[in-house]
Amino acid sequence: MVNVVVADDELPAVEELAFLLGKDSRIGTIHRASSGAEALRALEQHPVDALFLDIHMPALSGLDIARVISRFARPPAVVFVTADEDRALEAFDLRAVDYLLKPVRVERLAESVRRISELMDGPPAAPEVITVDQGGVSRMIRRDEVRYVQAQGDYARLHTVAASYLIRIPLNDLERQWARSGFLRTHRSYLVAMDQVRKVRISAGRASLFVGDAELPVSRRHLPDVREKLEATRLRPGH
Q1: Mean pLDDT by 10 residues, the chain (239 residues)
Q2: HTH LytTR-type domain: from which residue to which, for each copy (predicted)?
């Protein structure tokens, strides 16, 4: 079970996030804090595995708290929860596990809890971070946030839960670089994170994969590789 602190200077935001976390069976005790000082006191008084921190709080901000606990021998995981899209670089510099934008989506929150649980089981290798340019602003996207990649000429479009991002890397190059990270070429135009596939359909000789709300085609050429991967993960095609 993951014991957490939820810290936000706006009480409704604390209660909403605590409510959503309470619906996740992986979450244990939830401590509420309406300031950075209260969050630090909760750390002193209780065993805490992770903090969900608003960035903008009076006196001690979420970033300030993350800097403080980074000096701990065994710091708890940190997830920033904010309406501010422009502090992601600072967040990842402080080794944040995740960066959630308000209003928090249940699916993204569950992904944050999954990452925390993995850290508690044993820290994995640091995920690759890709720099993308969006409207002249550079953003950091973790590779494990990418569900699938779509070819667009000499570019590739990375699709995440929250948005999509265009990068100047051909799909063939990403296929080689990301093969060991669970990405499989399923079509000349698609590279898919196979652990994100929730359903498979094979009908009338045509195959497709469902990733989130998207239905992605599988070409005849790539179908044998897809079948082999699905057999290995025991995800059975539906007809």
Answers
A1: 96 97 96 95 93 93 91 88 77 83 93 92 68 77 92 93 90 90 94 91 86 94 86 57
A2: 130-232
Distances (CA, A) of 164 to 61, 158, 161, 182: 29, 5, 8, 19
The letter for the amino acid at 36 is G
Strand intervals (E) in the chain: 2-7, 27-33, 50-53, 77-82, 98-101, 129-134, 137-142, 148-152, 155-159, 164-167, 183-187, 190-193, 197-203, 206-211, 214-218
- Asked if 29 and 55 count as a contact pair (C-beta separation under 8 A), the reply is no
| CA–CA gap between residue 92 and residue 232 (Å, rounded) | 33
Q: Which CATH architecture has domain 129-233?
A: Beta Barrel (2.40)
Q: What's the rounded Cα separation, in Å, for the pair 211 and 187? A: 14
**Any long-range contacts for 165-168 (C-beta under 8 Å, 24+ apart)?**
165/132, 165/134, 165/139, 165/141, 166/132, 167/130, 167/132
